[in-house]
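seq:
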Amino acid sequence: MSKETENTSFRRLRNRYRLVVMNDDTYEEVTTFKLSRMSVYIGLCSVFVLLVGLTVALLTLTPLKYYVPGYGSLQGRKELQELKIRTDSLEQALQQKDQYLDNIKKVLGGSTTLNRDTTTLNIPKPEISND
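struct:
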């Protein structure tokens, strides 16, 4: 960037503009503001930082933080983990009981077929050593 373009860019930021608020019916000036692009930029950045700071303070210093997903007390997290484990084990036990009862119903009803294992096992015979 040449020095001339750098100078004009900086100069444009510092140019002063007038913002006039007028009454639409009487064309009377209500207020006048003298602004530059730099002051508008700094003002908007300040407002943004202030709003973010207030939001963070509101969430961290008030009970609203408990409504944020994933936030909670350590004791609550431990209790939730224990409840999940108990629920999973109860679901497994219920599935096993259902399967057991279904099998008993099939056996008592006589509608079961016996699946036999017909594969042969190759068991090596132990070697007898003569010492």
